[in-house]
Write a structure and sequence with these properties.
The complex is a heterodimer of chains A (about 240) and B (about 450).
Chain A lengths: L8 E4 L3 H13 L5 E4 L2 H10 L4 E4 L2 E2 L2 E2 H11 L4 E5 L4 H9 L4 E4 L4 H16 L1 H8 L1 E4 L2 E4 L4 E4 L2 E4 L2 H12 L4 E3 H9 L7 H15 L9 E4 L3 E4 L4
Parallel strand pairs in A: 1-2, 1-3, 3-6, 6-7
Antiparallel strand pairs in A: 4-5, 8-9, 9-10, 10-11, 12-14, 13-14
Chain B lengths: L1 H39 L10 H8 E4 L2 E4 L1 H9 L2 E7 L6 E5 L11 H9 L1 E2 L2 E7 L4 E6 L13 H49 L10 H56 L6 H31 L8 E3 L1 H14 L7 E6 L8 E3 L1 H17 L6 E9 L2 E8 L6 H8 L11 H12 L3 E4 L5 E5 L1
Parallel strand pairs in B: 9-11
Antiparallel strand pairs in B: 1-2, 3-4, 3-7, 5-6, 6-7, 8-10, 11-12, 12-14, 13-14
The chains are: A alpha/beta (about 240), B alpha+beta (about 450).
């Protein structure tokens, strides 16, 4: 597949005006192969005849529920599904995700968010290899972190990273520019019963800084947010 | 059951007291009556002039002639005697007589004397006394006096006297036993009523079975329970209908709102619009987002007020939860100049609690957002938490203007609001706290809100 925007997306929603709007605005955003149907019956026909790459499903449809259609769909294909529903109960959300949906969004929604989520799902599903390469390195100042190799390249030298340090860096990089709490970091490394590891976490962070930062005592990228957690400084 | 036992004990005590009182009253009454009788029969009263003391003086002999003395006349009159006669001790002949009926006017032999001394003389009850002059016989009117003689053996009499206290004691014991047994029986028959009342107060549906007198009570209790049950169901139905209605309305608003938001978003970036128009589009978009938040809150608050929001209970660490909330606030864009600070008691770290993490986060978030939204930029919010008497206290305080007293009253006393005030966020925080059996409070200056969990 050449371009993510050429992915064939099928929207199933009984509100025609809403479908028109989504098609129009997604079209503006570059998704040109998008269609809409308004009932389970039509969706069923599409499922049998067409190769769809992403389903956007409403839950309440005039001739059935999006959940039961999803079950039918899963028996035939592994195609990604995003629920877009007016039902915001936790139960509905959990049911949808439990059925294997890739995402669950509630109405009303921001178009920007829908586009971002659709893009993310498509990338994850169909463009993973490219993404992987892109994600596999991280430039922090003069240090280049190579996740696949588990090393930091800095001033022509290679410094190896431990598994825990890699996990930490990855978690912080995934949330770059945002604070990640001690708890979330500990949980990433030690799993659910992480209580009591806060001091060990500090030790790991100090080592990481020594490997990455030019001045470990005055970090530029791996910042401490007192009382809360750590943050990887945003782009730059 | 304890309550019944108390009633039973009370009943027994009262019954025993009553029996004792009755006995005491009888004794007192008897004594009083005797005393009264003694008092009334003074020295000169006729009945005091007993036969024995006067019998020697009834008849006087003056020169071989017998006659009735003055004392004798008085005695006979007072005692309404029918007749009097004086018999010769040797021969049984009548020496003197007074008003003697004709058929009695004859000589008496020893057998006759022995017989009337003990019993009756021709149906006349008689008193006999051996005087110096002869045998004095005074007869009363027929049927005026019952006369019998008693003879007991000495041992029989002694045993009788011995047995009287024992018999009385036995009687008392039987009475007490009957009281206790009856009480116990009553107690047992009331037990279902008692437990029924207890169930009723817990709001359970009952069907109490009772026999005899208790049956009516039980039936009434069951009826009361049915009425309560029906009322409860009606209220529940109404609450459910209201919650569902709110859920339905908020559901139906979602799709149209999606379109308003979607188009506003796309117009925002349109090159054909003037700056002013873009500004207006931005207002449409932001207000739509606010409506979205409001309908979500409305839905949640209505479910929380009617206990229709199921709690997803998980073990969580309050310290971690608060760090996460504060971090999320910091990771979003906050107003220029606003600051937020987290202060945790070191001991808090090891605490774990059970609760709905999403809802609790929402509650604290609401409090923090409330502080920031209603204060001018430069507001400093502090989230503090500590342990007090095994309860987790979460406090959100700011240096801003404080929550107005009107809002405080509306929230804490559930008073009607006089005008449109946005208290949904605070109310949800309060409801979530209460759903976790916690206490929600606002300080008097309105600057600090506490959740005690």
């Amino acid at each position: 597949m050449k371009d993510i925007h050429e992915s064939r997306i099928l929207l199933v929603d009984d509100n025609r005006e809403l479908c028109d709007m989504i098609l129009e605005l997604m079209g503006k955003a570059g998704f040109i192969n998008m269609k809409a149907v308004h009932s389970i019956e039509e969706a069923q026909r599409k499922l049998e005849r067409e190769q769809v790459q992403l389903w956007i499903l409403d839950v309440n449809l005039p001739d059935g529920s999006g959940f039961s259609f999803m079950e039918k769909l899963r028996r035939q294909s592994r195609c990604p599904v995003l629920f877009l529903s007016a039902r915001d109960e936790d139960e509905d959300r959990l049911r949808g995700l439990g059925l294997g949906a890739d995402d669950y969004m509630t109405k009303p929604f921001l178009m920007k968010e829908l586009i971002l989520r659709v893009t993310a799902i498509l990338k994850r599903t169909y463009y993973y290899p490219d993404e992987q390469k892109e994600r596999d390195t991280l430039q922090l100042g003069e240090s280049l972190v190579d996740f696949a190799g588990g090393v930091v390249k800095r001033e022509g030298r290679e410094i190896s990273l431990t598994a825990k340090e890699l996990l930490l860096l990855k978690k912080l990089a995934d949330n770059r520019g945002k604070i990640v709490t001690f708890d979330a970091l500990c949980e990433t490394i030690w799993g659910e019963s992480y209580f009591g590891y806060e001091n060990t976490l500090m030790v790991h962070m100090r080592r990481l800084r020594e490997k990455i930062e030019r001045e470990p005592s005055r970090p530029r990228y791996l910042l401490t947010v007192r009382g809360l957690g750590y943050k990887m400084e945003g782009k730059g | 059951m304890k309550r019944l036992l108390r009633i039973y004990r009370r009943y027994c005590a009262v019954a025993i007291m009553l029996v004792l009182l009755l006995i005491a009253m009888n004794v007192l009454g008897f004594l009083a009556l005797s005393w009264y009788n003694l008092e009334r029969s003074g020295e000169n009263s006729p009945s005091k002039i007993t036969f024995r003391s006067v019998s020697d003086d009834l008849v006087e002999k003056t020169g071989g002639e017998y006659s009735l003395s003055a004392v004798g006349e008085m005695y006979l009159k007072e005692n309404e005697a029918a007749f009097l006669m004086l018999l010769d001790k040797e021969t049984g002949e009548i020496l003197y007589s007074w008003q003697l009926p004709g058929q009695l006017n004859h000589t008496y032999d020893l057998g006759e004397v022995a017989s009337f001394t003990r019993w009756y003389l021709d149906d006349y009850p008689v008193k006999v006394w051996n005087t110096e002059e002869g045998l004095l016989v005074v007869g009363n009117q027929i049927d005026s006096v019952i006369q019998f003689s008693i003879a007991y053996s000495k041992t029989q009499m002694e045993t009788l006297l011995q047995w009287i206290p024992i018999g009385l004691g036995l009687n008392l014991a039987v009475v007490l036993l009957v009281i206790l047994i009856l009480g116990q029986k009553f107690n047992r028959s009331l037990a279902p009523i008692d437990s029924g009342i207890e169930q009723l107060s817990k709001g359970e549906k009952l069907s109490v079975q009772g026999r005899g007198l208790i049956k009516e009570l039980a039936d009434n209790l069951n009826q009361a329970s049915d009425i309560l049950q029906e009322q409860r169901e009606r209220i529940n139905r109404r609450d459910t209908a209201r919650t569902e209605w709110i859920a339905g309305v908020s559901h139906d608003i979602r799709t149209p709102l999606s379109m308003i938001m979607g188009y506003a978003e796309s117009m925002e970036n349109s090159p054909n619009l003037s700056e002013k128009e873009k500004q207006q589009i931005l207002v449409i978009k932001n207000q739509s987002i606010r409506i979205r938040r409001l309908i979500e809150d409305l839905n949640l608050t209505s479910k929380l007020s009617y206990q229709m929001q199921p709690l997803r209970l998980d073990i969580y660490r309050p310290a971690a939860l608060l760090r996460q909330v504060v971090t999320e606030v910091l990771n979003q864009e906050i107003k220029e100049g606003d600051t937020i600070e987290l202060e945790l008691e070191p001991g808090l770290e090891r605490y774990e609690r059970k609760g709905d993490v999403q809802l609790l986060k929402r509650a604290v978030e609401n409090l923090v957002n409330n502080s920031m939204r209603h204060n001018p930029p430069g507001c400093h919010v502090k989230v503090k938490s500590w342990v007090y008497e095994e309860r987790i206290v979460i406090s959100v305080l700011d240096d801003g203007c404080g929550i107005p007293s009107e809002v405080r009253r509306a929230l804490m006393l559930e008073e009607q609001l006089s005008r449109e005030i946005h208290i949904m966020g605070l109310r949800i925080a309060k409801q979530i706290t209460e759903a976790h059996k916690g206490v929600f409070s606002i300080s008097d200056d309105g600057k600090e809100v506490q959740m005690r969990l």
